[in-house]
Amino acid sequence: MRFYEVDRIIFCGILSLALGHLMKNTLISCLSLGLLMAHMEPLRAEEEKKQAFTMTTDTPADVKAAPADAEKTASGLASKVLKKGTGAKKPAAADTVTVHYSGWTTDGAMFDSSVKRGEPTSFPLNRVIKGWTEGLQLMTEGEIRRFWIPGNLAYGEESVGGRPAGTLVFDVELISFKEAPKPPDVPADVKAAPEDAIKTASGLASKVLTKGKGEVHPTATSTVKVHYSGWTTDGKLFDSSVVRGESISFPLNQVIAGWTEGVQLMVVGEKRRFWIPGKLAYGDVPQGGAPAGTLVFDVELLGIEK
What we know:
- The protein is α+β, with helices and mostly antiparallel strands.
- It has 3 domains: 1-47; 71-178, Chitinase A, domain 3, CATH 3.10.50; 198-304, Chitinase A, domain 3 (Roll), CATH 3.10.50.40.
- The chain is built from 5 helices and 14 strands.
- It has helices at 3-52, 114-117, 130-135, 241-244, 257-263, and strands at 71-72, 78-83, 96-105, 110-113, 121-124, 144-149, 168-178, 198-199, 205-210, 223-232, 237-240, 248-251, 271-276, 295-304.
- Strands 1, 2, 3, 4, 5, 6 and 7 form a 7-stranded antiparallel beta sheet that branches.
């Protein structure tokens, strides 16, 4: 046997082994790919189902209790995404949301539905039940999610005033949301009125921040339109029409004494800071969660309506 024939025999042997190994690996790879595809098929079907889901008024099949695959938070809120939304931004508690929704008790009885009415609804997220305030902050625009909200995050376990009791189930579609204006900065002089503040015999102190126009002042019975923000003297913001994005109108004789007196010092367009002692506000030990002691308000007089 010639030398080159020996080389050819060796080469053919190596090539055969390599091809056999390649075919074996290819077969294993194909089997692995098949198993992976078989595993992913239900996931793909679930994703397609989520993309196709639309709001209905049909009673959910899982209305009695949250399923095992529902997300759960520390508060006891359970939820499940029915349709994915778009983007990554989520509303904050002070934002105003626009939604479609339907709500059921766990026995399947529908008690409310914007879908049934054919009109979405809008509201600041921090002015609804706790389960909604928490839950909608998990969502993005376009998302539809089902919530199982325990009674302590809804209307309680006992029905009062016709409201539904116990765990409530909601399908909610987040159509859009509007970010709330940023909270105003805490005044540098929030702790006490400065030396140049105007003081009245009642103990009210104030300082003009922006001059107004004209010379007409409201009277104690005038209805005024204002924007305002209020802080306690430790710098805690407790109320603000600015944050809500809505001015407010009211008769001056139907608010705290410090406002009744103070706003009469103003003209339209003026912005003034007030330091109102507890006796002219809600008292030093108020009831019902009202802020105590001296309160600081920035008030802008937008108009005198009558």
